[in-house]
Amino acid sequence: MAKRKYGGRPSRAAKSPAPGRERSGGGQTLPGRESDRTAFDPTLLFGRHAVAAALANPRRHVRALMCSVEAAADLAETLAALPEARCGALPDPRTVTAEEIATLVGEGAVHQGLIARVDPLPDTALEDVLDAAGPQSLLMVLDQVTDPHNLGAVLRSAAAFGADAVVVQDRHTPQITAVVAKTASGALDVTPLVRVINLARALRTIQEAGFWCVGLAEEGPVALDSLDLSGRAALVMGAEGDGLRRLTRETCDQLVHLPTKAPIRSLNVSAAAAIALHHAAVAPGRKAG
Question: Is the pLDDT of residue 13 over 70?
Fold first, then answer.
């Protein structure tokens, strides 16, 4: 097959809003949870799973590692399980007080006594994902999902069900920050997040690479559970509230609906994504592959 270009280089991540300001599209923090400063910090990771995944990822540069007294034994066990070369590239952990942790992550954050200062992961190009795709590859594509908790939850499900990547439109997707990383629970360091400028163009490129693009929409003519999603498949999910945009719908190969019961006809995008990913993951051909 001839070498293709997959939509050019990834664009730069969107800038974070200033502390105390809301992101458009529901990206604000919730009262009593992470502070604004913490939620919008792209260099902060906290929580057992997010920190452990970053420590194990050779592509992740960790600048500082902190833990509470109570979490020190767990952290030592995590570090002992890493390859010697990786462990040698990590900073020595520093024990911090509960007050220091609260200052870093904000009151109410579920940090489990573990915090890391990191560099953001390098960009992943769609071209690289498609070049590496095997015959049973699975992609998750998000059409302007703007809530950071939903983005993190979809990333977590994508990692759990073995998706090769999550593809998003750059302009209308939250920056990867502490709140996304915490919700993703380590998935950021497991499943690549690919940002593209034009989603419809990216979908056509994905189709040219042999993927069947399946969009989830309430008006889809067939039920998701009636499809065999083995082989190369891309699941396309719409934004909170509005669903798939017109051009995205028209570009998909097939529109499907979830087999829900009245009066509940739709689910939160992260819940719907988990169901769709599970259905694709257990497809007979994919399990055999």
Answer: no
